[in-house]
Predict the structure of Putative antibiotic resistance-related regulatory protein.
Amino acid sequence: MKLSKTEEQLMQHLWKLEKAFMKDILEQYDEPKPATTTIATLLKRMTDKGYIAYKTFGKSREYFPLIQKAAYFSNHLNGLIKNFFNDSASQFASFFTKETNLSDDELKELRKIIDQQIKDNKK
């Protein structure tokens, strides 16, 4: 199950804060801030989806992510590769390098990263 755009935005705040009460989350938003009821609905949906959990302190809840940002992004990216690039990382890489207008320096940096990963895989 995937997060909606508004849920992803809230999740970004939770990853940054690591754990937070509703008021802490609301403070992260720019003006005009969403309604408390909107945030409460998002938190409930995200809890139901298994992305976040909470600890209860009296009548307050302290929310925290159950999935790390890197793991979520990796799953999301792998889904994109599967759905849009026939499950081919090389097709994705080709598209990415051609369509993102990377500079020569950025392409060289990517080459270094790939070369290092190839070395690491051989170990």
User: Anything to note?
Assistant: The longest strand covers residues 52-57.
